[in-house]
Amino acid sequence: LNHRNYLLESPHKYSVADLQQIADGAYEGFLDALIGFASQHVYHCDLCTQRGFICQICHHHDIIFPFEFDTTVRCGECKTVFHQSCQAVVKGGCPRCARRRKYQERSALL
């Protein structure tokens, strides 16, 4: 991070050096490197991988993360993450939300 820890804590704060890099066109390269570093950390850190998701549609054992924008989609209601390809096939929305609604309906009948 080169003394830029503030980017992790407050991603909407910029230093004068950041603004200069933006003007020079160098900031995008820095952000690409930062995203690559952070992604590799998450994929290999035992603690961080526990914050990932298993697709609740296909139940494949690979852990997926919400920052994998090209291959995943996130439920706007419960924030569960699915493979985009799985979500496209499923009719009726999020299976986790459907299970929760069904459970709440059963609980209301008791």
TrEMBL record:
Residues 40-94 form the Phorbol-ester/DAG-type domain. GO terms for molecular function: zinc ion binding. Keywords: Metal-binding, Repeat, Zinc, Zinc-finger. The keyword Methyltransferase does not apply. Pfam families: RH_dom. InterPro entries: DEF8, PKC_DAG/PE, RH_dom. The keyword Zinc applies. It comes from the Eukaryota. PANTHER family: PLECKSTRIN HOMOLOGY DOMAIN CONTAINING PROTEIN, PLECKSTRIN HOMOLOGY DOMAIN-CONTAINING FAMILY M MEMBER 1. This is Low quality protein: pleckstrin. It comes from Lynx pardinus.
